[in-house]
Amino acid sequence: MDVVDLSRNNVLCKITAMNGKIWHCLFLYGEPNVDHRVTLWAELNILLQPYTNYIIVGDINQVDLYSNKLGDANLIRGWEEFMSWKHALQLKDVPFCGPRYTWTNNRDDSDLIMERLDKAYASQDWFDEFPATIVQNLPIIQSDHGPIWLQTTPKPSNPNRPYQLENWCLRYPEVVTITRDIWQLRIAGSPMYTLARKLDSLRKHLKAWCLDKKLFGGINWRKIFSELQNQASQVQTITQGAALVMRHRPLMNEASLALTYWHQRIKDRHLQLADIPSKFLFNRLRQKKTHNYVYILKSATGEWVENHTEIANMIQSHFENLYQASARGSPTVNNNGEEIDLVLRD
């Protein structure tokens, strides 16, 4: 990067990429005094005339839209001169994301003024080169200005999909109660309007209920086992036995619902990550590996073998005999051999 021009209000830099492409970036501090801005726009117009592929970024110190101003008088001073300069250079607004207002006077109540002063403009050639360019507005923290972040290749954002009611929710009686209560509401209007309002209200109530009911921990089987064991050890009468059964049912229902919930979480994460080499994938593989273990194996003679080394030798010997070489030197498959019977013991 080389500095082409330097002044009190701007720094024009020439940027050369590794592939040899060249573009220019003008870092601008707009004139705070509105009476002096016309002179600045004229100087920048002359400065940028030789270039076609450039971007202007910084504290422009000029509001160009009423939507970028909050508070104070409705009149935007210096607007006509700025728009004339902008149109003369055929500048285009760089889209932004984040907070709209990047400057505040830090006053209270009706004296508060907020404006979007920090932004970027670019030429058409720039957008042809970097069509995805955006400016990310960051929050105002220490200064009266918020920092902005220019991104030529922003990371693609994952679109928020509509909230979905999951299967585990349908097993709670509260869901039926919420649905029944909302459906019995009296709403004035046409049948389609009434249906739309009820569906919208039902969606909001069910979403709030699901988020409030969402589980943030696993199933504490140790706690359930301990509680049932303590209560079962004290059973000596029919009444105590009935109390144990009454306590056992809600505990198992709650555990079953939690199990359904976490199965749904695993399914969602699998759909999102698929076979990406992630921590989630390797944890799943380790879990499957513990289940895919041969504890006992039946030999060709009908004997059950439990020794790990003998089981490995049996499997190796079986496949060596199965894919043995024939007299002509080509491998043959012995279809008449004994089949290996695997038995997994819990």
Structure description:
This protein has 346 residues and is α+β, with helices and mostly antiparallel strands. It has three domains: 150 residues, Deoxyribonuclease I, Chain A (4-Layer Sandwich); 112 residues, no CATH class; 48 residues, no CATH class. The protein is 40% helix and 16% strand. Strand 13 and strand 14 form a beta hairpin. Helix 1 packs parallel to helix 2, helix 4 runs antiparallel to helix 5 and helix 6 packs antiparallel against helix 7. It is flat.
H-E string? EEEHEEHEEEEEHEEHHHHHEEHE
Overall geometry: flat
β-strand amount:
15-25%
Report the radius of gyration as a whole number of Å.
36 Å
- Total individual domains: 3
Q: What class would the helix/strand composition place it in? A: alpha+beta
Side by side, the strands of the main sheet go 1-2-3-4-10-6
Q: pLDDT under 50 segments (min length 5)?
A: 335-346
Named at the architecture level, the CATH assignment of the largest domain is 4-Layer Sandwich
Q: Quick check: average pLDDT?
A: 78
- What is the CATH topology descriptor of the largest domain? Deoxyribonuclease I, Chain A
Return the CATH class of the largest domain.
Answer: Alpha Beta
- Distance separating the two termini: 67 Å
Helix amount: 25-40%
The tally of beta strands, per DSSP, is 15
Number of continuous helical runs: 9
